[in-house]
Amino acid sequence: MKNKIIIIGKKSFLGSNLTSHLKERNLIISLDYKNFIKKKISFIKNFSYIINCTSNKDYVSDRYLKKNDFDLTIANKIKNLNIKMIMLSSRKVYKKGTNLKESSALRPKSNYSKNKLRTENALLKILKKKILILRISNVIGLNIKKHNKLHKVFIDIFYENIKKGLIFDNKDFYKDFISVDKFCEIVEKLITSNTYGIYNVSIGKKILLRKIVSWLNFYNKKEIKFVDSIKKYQSDNFTLNNDKLMDTIKIKNTPLDLKKYCINLSKEFFKNV
What b-and-e string marks burial along 237-271, b requiring 16 or more CB atoms within 10 Å of the CB? Predict the structure, then answer.
């Protein structure tokens, strides 16, 4: 039997990719946030999952206010229904470090990460076993809908600068990445396994920035200039421990998969440049 899923944020990076991936084996309705809020309970109760992929710009940049917390509003709307919610959180709720587990110390620094952690705690109280929280590492991929995102991530900065003929010299800095295709596969597996709670979503390995840059730049035939790396990347090395996730869904999720994905992404990107 197919799951009936509402995806909120149909033009967002993750929302558009999840819609494209999940619609093959599930019944998907993709809405923007305002249209979802207008929907009556009689409509919403027919679904088994809600995935929120959108956010308020003030929630991203400013201190916490309930009115800016879309996840909280959604949770309160469905709290009396037999529907599970998937919240997309961030690895930035953790303190800096490597091999960060779901039980590792939490020390958010930015307003965005502080707001995410506050929302996590609220949703766990409201929905209990009906909430799945995904603490996501850096997601690599292109936005299907070409929609402007609220805040830039690694690949946005890379492609903005490559158009100018620049690449940051990232030396031995590293992060934990995952392709958007693998992210979508993981979400579908978690839905199928009827999982709840908090999970790290990542490859779980150190990925050197200079390596991922070389993969993303694989098909670039134009001359490039290397410039000093952005300071925030120099002090933001991290890896997430994904053992809990892999024990639950048991899929292939390796740096080699990421390499192949990035090289294919490079081919797609540079054929139009």
Answer: bbbbbbeebbebbeeebebebbbebbbebbeebbe
